[in-house]
Structure prediction request, 223 residues.
Amino acid sequence: MSNATFYREMREKTDPLWEAIFHHPFVKGIGDGALSRDRFEFYLKQDFVYLIDFSRVFALACAKSRTLPDMGTFATLLQATLNTEMELHRKTCADLGIAELELAKTRKSPVTSAYTDLLVRTAYEGGLSDILAVLLPCACGYAEIGKRLKSEGLPEDRFYRDRIDTYSSPEFQEFADGLIGRMNENAADAPAQCKEHWHRLYESSARYEYLFFDMSWKKEEGR
Prediction:
Protein backbone atom coordinates (compact mmCIF):
# COMPACT_ATOMS: atom_id res chain seq x y z
CA MET A 1 0.00 0.00 0.00
CA SER A 2 1.34 3.41 -0.93
CA ASN A 3 1.57 5.59 2.15
CA ALA A 4 0.82 8.76 0.22
CA THR A 5 -2.46 7.32 -1.05
CA PHE A 6 -3.78 5.63 2.08
CA TYR A 7 -6.90 7.82 2.10
CA ARG A 8 -7.41 7.27 -1.61
CA GLU A 9 -7.24 3.51 -1.14
CA MET A 10 -9.83 3.65 1.65
CA ARG A 11 -11.99 5.81 -0.58
CA GLU A 12 -11.66 3.50 -3.58
CA LYS A 13 -12.49 0.39 -1.54
CA THR A 14 -15.79 2.01 -0.57
CA ASP A 15 -16.56 3.49 -3.99
CA PRO A 16 -19.83 1.53 -4.51
CA LEU A 17 -21.10 2.99 -1.23
CA TRP A 18 -20.13 6.51 -2.26
CA GLU A 19 -21.80 6.09 -5.64
CA ALA A 20 -24.97 5.10 -3.79
CA ILE A 21 -24.67 8.30 -1.76
CA PHE A 22 -24.06 10.50 -4.80
CA HIS A 23 -27.11 9.04 -6.56
CA HIS A 24 -29.43 8.99 -3.55
CA PRO A 25 -32.65 10.95 -4.26
CA PHE A 26 -32.02 13.22 -1.27
CA VAL A 27 -28.61 14.28 -2.59
CA LYS A 28 -29.85 14.53 -6.18
CA GLY A 29 -32.80 16.57 -4.94
CA ILE A 30 -30.46 19.13 -3.40
CA GLY A 31 -28.63 19.37 -6.70
CA ASP A 32 -31.63 19.86 -8.96
CA GLY A 33 -33.75 21.72 -6.43
CA ALA A 34 -36.50 19.09 -6.44
CA LEU A 35 -36.07 18.01 -2.81
CA SER A 36 -39.26 18.69 -0.85
CA ARG A 37 -38.96 21.32 1.85
CA ASP A 38 -40.24 19.04 4.62
CA ARG A 39 -37.40 16.57 3.96
CA PHE A 40 -34.84 19.37 3.95
CA GLU A 41 -36.15 20.76 7.24
CA PHE A 42 -36.04 17.31 8.82
CA TYR A 43 -32.44 16.97 7.65
CA LEU A 44 -31.44 20.39 9.02
CA LYS A 45 -32.80 19.59 12.47
CA GLN A 46 -31.03 16.23 12.63
CA ASP A 47 -27.82 17.71 11.24
CA PHE A 48 -27.91 20.40 13.94
CA VAL A 49 -27.97 17.85 16.77
CA TYR A 50 -25.36 15.80 14.89
CA LEU A 51 -23.03 18.83 14.84
CA ILE A 52 -23.21 19.12 18.62
CA ASP A 53 -21.51 15.74 18.99
CA PHE A 54 -19.30 16.43 15.99
CA SER A 55 -17.97 19.39 17.99
CA ARG A 56 -17.30 17.12 20.96
CA VAL A 57 -15.17 14.92 18.70
CA PHE A 58 -13.04 17.91 17.70
CA ALA A 59 -12.64 18.83 21.37
CA LEU A 60 -11.50 15.30 22.21
CA ALA A 61 -9.16 15.27 19.21
CA CYS A 62 -7.62 18.50 20.48
CA ALA A 63 -7.14 16.96 23.93
CA LYS A 64 -5.50 13.84 22.46
CA SER A 65 -3.19 15.73 20.11
CA ARG A 66 0.50 15.43 20.97
CA THR A 67 1.71 18.51 19.12
CA LEU A 68 0.72 22.16 19.29
CA PRO A 69 -0.02 22.32 15.53
CA ASP A 70 -2.47 19.44 15.84
CA MET A 71 -4.07 21.05 18.90
CA GLY A 72 -4.41 24.28 16.95
CA THR A 73 -5.97 22.52 13.98
CA PHE A 74 -8.68 20.79 15.98
CA ALA A 75 -9.29 23.84 18.17
CA THR A 76 -9.86 25.86 14.99
CA LEU A 77 -12.23 23.22 13.63
CA LEU A 78 -14.12 23.18 16.93
CA GLN A 79 -14.51 26.95 16.83
CA ALA A 80 -15.64 26.89 13.19
CA THR A 81 -18.22 24.18 13.85
CA LEU A 82 -19.65 25.74 17.02
CA ASN A 83 -19.64 29.38 15.93
CA THR A 84 -19.86 29.31 12.14
CA GLU A 85 -21.49 26.13 10.83
CA MET A 86 -24.04 25.83 13.62
CA GLU A 87 -24.88 29.52 13.35
CA LEU A 88 -25.45 29.00 9.62
CA HIS A 89 -27.86 26.19 10.54
CA ARG A 90 -29.72 28.45 12.95
CA LYS A 91 -29.97 31.21 10.35
CA THR A 92 -31.17 28.87 7.62
CA CYS A 93 -33.75 27.37 9.95
CA ALA A 94 -34.93 30.82 11.01
CA ASP A 95 -35.36 31.78 7.35
CA LEU A 96 -37.45 28.63 6.92
CA GLY A 97 -39.61 29.51 9.91
CA ILE A 98 -38.02 27.04 12.33
CA ALA A 99 -37.58 28.77 15.69
CA GLU A 100 -34.32 28.35 17.57
CA LEU A 101 -36.21 26.84 20.52
CA GLU A 102 -37.73 24.21 18.22
CA LEU A 103 -34.28 23.45 16.81
CA ALA A 104 -32.81 23.08 20.30
CA LYS A 105 -35.55 20.61 21.28
CA THR A 106 -34.87 18.30 18.34
CA ARG A 107 -34.62 14.66 19.41
CA LYS A 108 -32.05 12.51 17.70
CA SER A 109 -33.41 9.90 15.33
CA PRO A 110 -32.10 6.33 15.81
CA VAL A 111 -29.71 6.77 12.87
CA THR A 112 -28.38 10.08 14.19
CA SER A 113 -27.88 8.53 17.63
CA ALA A 114 -26.05 5.52 16.23
CA TYR A 115 -23.82 7.68 14.04
CA THR A 116 -22.87 10.12 16.79
CA ASP A 117 -22.35 7.24 19.22
CA LEU A 118 -19.77 5.80 16.81
CA LEU A 119 -18.00 9.16 16.54
CA VAL A 120 -17.93 9.99 20.26
CA ARG A 121 -17.06 6.45 21.37
CA THR A 122 -14.18 6.34 18.89
CA ALA A 123 -12.95 9.72 20.13
CA TYR A 124 -13.02 8.56 23.77
CA GLU A 125 -11.55 5.11 23.23
CA GLY A 126 -9.20 5.59 20.27
CA GLY A 127 -6.21 7.64 19.28
CA LEU A 128 -5.95 10.55 16.88
CA SER A 129 -5.74 8.31 13.81
CA ASP A 130 -8.93 6.51 14.83
CA ILE A 131 -10.66 9.88 15.19
CA LEU A 132 -9.45 10.99 11.77
CA ALA A 133 -10.74 7.78 10.20
CA VAL A 134 -14.31 8.37 11.41
CA LEU A 135 -14.23 12.10 10.62
CA LEU A 136 -13.08 11.73 7.01
CA PRO A 137 -16.32 10.40 5.47
CA CYS A 138 -18.30 13.42 6.66
CA ALA A 139 -15.69 16.06 5.85
CA CYS A 140 -14.48 14.64 2.54
CA GLY A 141 -17.84 13.25 1.51
CA TYR A 142 -19.49 16.67 1.72
CA ALA A 143 -16.62 18.20 -0.23
CA GLU A 144 -17.10 15.61 -2.98
CA ILE A 145 -20.87 16.06 -3.00
CA GLY A 146 -20.50 19.84 -3.18
CA LYS A 147 -18.09 19.71 -6.12
CA ARG A 148 -20.17 17.14 -8.01
CA LEU A 149 -23.41 19.04 -7.60
CA LYS A 150 -21.85 22.37 -8.50
CA SER A 151 -20.35 20.89 -11.68
CA GLU A 152 -23.87 19.88 -12.72
CA GLY A 153 -25.23 23.41 -12.29
CA LEU A 154 -26.70 25.21 -9.30
CA PRO A 155 -30.43 24.99 -8.50
CA GLU A 156 -32.64 28.05 -8.30
CA ASP A 157 -33.59 27.35 -4.69
CA ARG A 158 -31.36 29.62 -2.63
CA PHE A 159 -31.17 27.28 0.37
CA TYR A 160 -29.92 24.37 -1.72
CA ARG A 161 -27.67 26.64 -3.75
CA ASP A 162 -26.09 28.10 -0.61
CA ARG A 163 -25.47 24.61 0.74
CA ILE A 164 -23.73 23.52 -2.45
CA ASP A 165 -21.66 26.71 -2.50
CA THR A 166 -20.59 26.14 1.11
CA TYR A 167 -19.36 22.59 0.62
CA SER A 168 -17.76 23.20 -2.78
CA SER A 169 -15.83 26.23 -1.51
CA PRO A 170 -12.01 26.32 -1.48
CA GLU A 171 -12.13 26.82 2.29
CA PHE A 172 -14.09 23.62 2.86
CA GLN A 173 -11.87 21.69 0.45
CA GLU A 174 -8.83 22.95 2.36
CA PHE A 175 -10.38 21.65 5.58
CA ALA A 176 -10.97 18.22 4.02
CA ASP A 177 -7.50 18.10 2.45
CA GLY A 178 -5.92 18.91 5.80
CA LEU A 179 -7.57 15.91 7.43
CA ILE A 180 -6.58 13.69 4.50
CA GLY A 181 -2.97 14.83 4.76
CA ARG A 182 -2.87 14.13 8.47
CA MET A 183 -4.36 10.67 7.97
CA ASN A 184 -1.79 9.86 5.30
CA GLU A 185 1.04 11.04 7.55
CA ASN A 186 -0.16 8.86 10.41
CA ALA A 187 -0.40 5.84 8.10
CA ALA A 188 3.14 6.25 6.77
CA ASP A 189 4.82 3.80 9.15
CA ALA A 190 1.76 2.04 10.52
CA PRO A 191 1.44 -1.77 10.39
CA ALA A 192 -1.15 -3.38 8.14
CA GLN A 193 -3.30 -4.29 11.15
CA CYS A 194 -3.70 -0.63 12.11
CA LYS A 195 -4.50 0.37 8.54
CA GLU A 196 -7.20 -2.30 8.33
CA HIS A 197 -8.67 -1.04 11.61
CA TRP A 198 -8.79 2.53 10.27
CA HIS A 199 -10.40 1.32 7.07
CA ARG A 200 -13.16 -0.42 9.06
CA LEU A 201 -13.80 2.77 11.03
CA TYR A 202 -13.87 4.80 7.82
CA GLU A 203 -16.27 2.35 6.18
CA SER A 204 -18.60 2.31 9.20
CA SER A 205 -18.75 6.10 9.22
CA ALA A 206 -19.36 6.21 5.45
CA ARG A 207 -22.27 3.79 5.85
CA TYR A 208 -23.81 6.15 8.37
CA GLU A 209 -23.42 8.99 5.88
CA TYR A 210 -25.62 7.02 3.49
CA LEU A 211 -28.09 6.16 6.24
CA PHE A 212 -28.28 9.80 7.33
CA PHE A 213 -29.39 10.92 3.87
CA ASP A 214 -31.75 7.95 3.58
CA MET A 215 -33.22 8.71 7.01
CA SER A 216 -33.81 12.32 5.96
CA TRP A 217 -35.48 11.22 2.75
CA LYS A 218 -37.84 8.92 4.67
CA LYS A 219 -38.11 11.28 7.67
CA GLU A 220 -37.47 8.42 10.09
CA GLU A 221 -37.92 9.73 13.59
CA GLY A 222 -38.23 6.44 15.42
CA ARG A 223 -40.50 5.95 18.39
